[in-house]
């Protein structure tokens, strides 16, 4: 008898699986509450053996119709921009996708709503009998601002520092102990945690003295609004501003003693807007000033303009992005207009001339202006 085989038929792989042993992998993603703004949460993993991937189940408590998810295997897109977040019985692919041990399975969850939510996933696999599969992976929640605090109506703004209004100019010289620096900042009404580092204490206090003595209006801002400065883990960045807590963070790994060399290199590369040694802390204080200058609601509205924060997508045209990069800094094009504000502020306060068009953007989006600017 002559055997027959239907080449490329519906009973051939990948339309019909070749493996027989079911293997299910569950993943739960707890997405914390953050400020409103575009966020991308990823869950990526690999498996130690060969698989066939034929379905995924998903359940989310999100009630936001704009949330969506993507799924890829080994760099190949399987599902894109799926708004349905309830496939508890499984979304079947109609094919059994082969998965090699080095193929990364990547799930992306996109949300612009700051509420916390849970996403539960179940991956439907087939494998060969007797395999003891090992999963290697992680969930990346990203780094995003905390939500603004809900202040009770009776809460009063921060009071004046001891002795009443600030007396300007302030005197500053390098401190010999962290305790002295803490007393100095406390007298300004600023909470500071220098993590026991005298180099950090002198770096931060020198920047505060510079702003108090050269930026009219800065003293009034720190008396009207809470400011906390902390030296701590900055999650891979040199620093960041947390609008929800009013906290400015500088990385505890930042090389304060070589700040001048670092900032000059960043400036020469066109990455940052100023070579001044204090630019890192001034930049983060520029965020703080912008936030309080426009108010929380407007700040979060501006934060949500950019489609993916520090990613490749932007509301800027190619010509606009090139203009900002060439006339201010490349970093100012990120999360537009959020990063343009402190980049322009840092340049201005440290004596770097500001292009007229850059300044127009700065004013359009409510950048803080020192008296006389």
TrEMBL record:
Protein's recorded name: Uncharacterized protein
Q: What is the lineage of its organism?
A: Bacteria, Bacillati, Bacillota, Bacilli, Bacillales
């Amino acid at each position: 008898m002559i055997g027959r085989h239907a080449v490329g038929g519906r009973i051939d792989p990948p339309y019909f699986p070749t493996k027989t042993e079911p293997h299910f992998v569950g993943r739960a993603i707890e997405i914390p509450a953050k400020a409103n703004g575009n966020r991308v949460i990823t869950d990526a993993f690999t498996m130690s053996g060969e698989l066939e991937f034929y379905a995924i189940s998903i359940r989310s408590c999100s009630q936001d119709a704009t949330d969506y998810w993507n799924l890829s295997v080994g760099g190949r897109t399987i599902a894109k921009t799926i708004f349905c977040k309830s496939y508890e019985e499984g979304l079947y692919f109609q094919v059994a996708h082969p998965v090699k041990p080095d193929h990364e399975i990547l799930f992306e969850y996109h949300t612009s709503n700051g509420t916390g939510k849970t996403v539960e996933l179940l991956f439907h696999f087939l494998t060969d009998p007797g395999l003891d599969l090992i999963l290697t992976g992680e969930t990346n929640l990203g780094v995003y601002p905390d939500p603004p605090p809900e202040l009770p109506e009776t809460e009063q703004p921060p009071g004046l520092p001891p002795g009443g209004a600030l007396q300007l100019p302030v005197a500053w010289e390098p401190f010999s102990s962290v305790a002295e620096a803490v007393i100095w900042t406390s007298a300004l009404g600023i909470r500071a945690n220098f993590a026991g580092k005298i180099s950090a204490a002198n770096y931060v206090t020198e920047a505060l003295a510079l702003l108090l003595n050269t930026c009219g209006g800065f003293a009034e801002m720190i008396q009207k609004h809470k400011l906390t400065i902390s030296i701590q883990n900055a999650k891979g960045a040199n620093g960041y501003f947390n609008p929800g807590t009013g906290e400015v963070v500088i990385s505890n790994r930042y090389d304060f003693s070589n700040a001048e060399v670092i900032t000059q290199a960043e400036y020469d590369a066109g990455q940052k807007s100023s070579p001044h040694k204090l630019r890192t802390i001034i930049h983060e204080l520029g965020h703080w000033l912008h936030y309080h200058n426009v108010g929380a609601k407007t700040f979060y509205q501006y934060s949500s303009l950019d489609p993916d924060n520090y990613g490749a997508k932007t509301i800027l045209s190619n010509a606009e992005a090139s203009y900002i990069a060439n006339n201010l800094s490349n970093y100012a094009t990120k999360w537009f207009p959020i990063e343009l504000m402190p980049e322009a502020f840092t340049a201005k306060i440290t004596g770097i001339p500001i292009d007229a068009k850059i300044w127009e953007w700065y004013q359009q989006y409510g950048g803080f202006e020192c008296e006389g600017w």
